[in-house]
Amino acid sequence: MNTAPPSAPVPATPGDALDVQPTPLALLLLGRDSDPRSERGVECPGDLPSPSDPDLVERARAAKERLGEKVFVLGHHYQRDEVIRFADVTGDSFKLARDAAARPEAEYIVFCGVHFMAESADILTSDRQQVVLPDLAAGCSMADMATAEQVAECWDVLTEAGVADSTVPVSYMNSSADIKAFTGRHGGTICTSSNARRALDWAFSQGEKVLFLPDQHLGRNTAVRDMGMSLEDCVVYNPHRPNGGLTAEELRAAKMILWRGHCSVHGRFTLDSVNDVRERVPGINVLVHPECRHEVVAAADHVGSTEYIIKTLEAAPAGSKWAIGTELNLVRRLANRFAPEGKEVVFLDRTVCFCSTMNRIDLPHLVWALESLADGKVVNRIQVDPETEKFAKLALERMLALP
Ligand code: SF4
């Protein structure tokens, strides 16, 4: 996404009445409570080191050294500092999956991220590479908001309304392998937060409508902010209501059919967060991720993916001030990195905003996974079945071929 000056106040997003209702996936503060759906109750088979073990850092280093080139550790931008220090490469989920595929000599790919990312890495790497997720409980609340059964039912609703034939599915990278496979089977493509505009341009050259899964905000922000559609061109399909809560007429009139999913971390930022930081820090630039609500994105100065956020700060002049609307582990690292260059980086909201499932990957789990691999035991392997992989790969290849 490109930069743009803040626009006039934007009316509340359609579907917001739904968004603000309490959800079982409400944001969780780090270390307090658990997410019953995305943090699946999974035990580690074996002895997990104690978090208070003073030798954890040394144990991780030693296990990695024993494994040598056989292991490649991927660290998503939102991971904890204690984990990211052991990553061979850092980045967003798609970059990491491609980095793993480019290292065929690495037999084991340890993915410090969440479940759907490890699935994507398994899809894009060779069959002899085994992908390991140090804690199987690290899910993603957004990806979990669209199940294969719900999406199949939605397609039946679109078929019934007579619009399925003219609808192209576009699924965000942050979705399960099942949803990616659905997308591939129905002629659609995957997108990232960096190429969502190009994916939608392509999809509208193939059909009249787009079913955008599972993040309603990325879909709406791209359609309205980048492509000039109106909010009325978008409808929200709610999988918990009969027929998605939409009439056949509404489906026929819509250009963008947005799945009712969102990120519980980025959904945390509000227009008040933007107004508050502008009042507290005069002259501050507000830079947010497109998973944020539409009114937040419309009020921001700059909008873009995590890679875009990092590049923007790298290019920023000394003395500039930035409020960042994305996950806190990343913002904290950016603040520390850019402070010596005289750039002030603050978190957009006043309250703590970690991704609770990303934080499931901690040093004890990483040590356990690395030591197990060094002992010749593959633990927590993530393996996508061949049929799902075939169609998910098709959707991913369409993304790679986007003009
Ligand atoms: S930050 Fe949001 S989209 Fe990313 S893993 Fe966490 S819940 Fe999922």
Automatic annotation (TrEMBL):
Chief place of localization: cytoplasm
Classification via SUPFAM superfamilies: NadA-like (SSF142754)
Keyword tags: 4Fe-4S, Cytoplasm, Iron, Iron-sulfur, Metal-binding, Pyridine nucleotide biosynthesis, Transferase
Bias (Basic and acidic residues): 32-42
Signal peptide: none
Protein name: Quinolinate synthase
HAMAP family, per the entry: NadA_type3
Residues that coordinate or bind [4Fe-4S] cluster: 140, 263, 355
